[in-house]
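[job 0412] stage=complex_fold ligand=adenosine monophosphate status=START
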Amino acid sequence: MKKIQSLALFCGSSEGIDGRYREAAQEMGDLLFRRGVTMVYGGGNRGLMGIAAERLYSQGGRVIGVLPQILDRSDVRLRVVEEQLIVAPTMHERKARMYEMSDGFVAMAGGIGTFEEILEVFTWLQLGLHTKAVALLNTAGFYDPLLAFLRHAHAQGFIKADLLDALIVEEDPALLLDRIEGFSVNLGDKLS
Ligand code: AMP
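[job 0412] stage=complex_fold status=DONE, emitting structure tokens
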């Protein structure tokens, strides 16, 4: 198993209505602390993002927030992680920084921003631009409808089976991290 130094965590800037999302974000913060993994994330204090970051940082763990300039406002910044805050000039540069700094990518429950971020790194895996793990934390089956849609796209001939198989999906955060540590991928000819 390879040692994962840092993980990008994509997750909602909202908390969601089910307390299990909050609990999962807290558990993720605890696990990253215990495993000595740095959390790279969007840099805000809101929703599940803030919950996971605060939980990890308050125990002495390492959190790197990467905010785009347009969101760099005092009411958005997570007070406790200011020392590790990187402000990127644009959204695209912000994401590029997050990807460079991370050994793998996890989406917890979230909305459009979360979907966009995880699907982009999944696209990049497909293209062979990286070989890092792409994972969905499927708290309370949150991602089941997306998984059904991805399987539908596969059945309709738009997504290859080996790409779908490469996507890590787990409901339990510890199992998810174990699978990320054991991840390897060989997608063959990506551009055909
Ligand atoms: P969403 O899932 O739509 O709530 O968006 C969350 C994702 O988009 C996070 O992973 C962040 O990278 C980014 N994002 C959305 N809102 C904010 C915010 N207020 N501050 C920082 N990043 C945000």
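The chain has one domain: 6-181.
[job 0412] exit 0
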